Amino acid sequence: MDEHLKLKNQICFPFYSLSKAITRHYRVFLDKLDITYPQYLVFMVLGEKEPQSVNEIGQQLTLDSGTLTPMLKRMEQKQLIQRNRKKSDERIVEISLTAKGRVLQKEAAQIPEQLIDVLGISSKDLEELKEIKPKIQRILDKIQK
Question: For the whole model, what pTM was predicted?
């Protein structure tokens, strides 16, 4: 077998494994809030600015409307968000948090700190990850064009 085909030499595998492991640890905290990881990401995006259109949220989370719309409908059924048509252009659906959603968002905001404690990640490890984030984003931007 060619050396470059071995699993240990694949660049994507460590990213996949790390993502899977971290998401698994998130699930412990998210299950207590009765939300999924993608729903948690919606809370984060809306925490930066609201309202936001479905399209804006989808772009930030790299989710298509076929994936995002059913998830947003479930969040609306739980009374965490409200979906409203924009008055100036009714084709655009805007998403905002409800009062219940804001309470849950505040609880979810504690998760990153709790996760770091559980994982036992050092501040040095976090700084090193932050240093490679722009490189990862640059590659991701190229791939998504």
Answer: 0.84
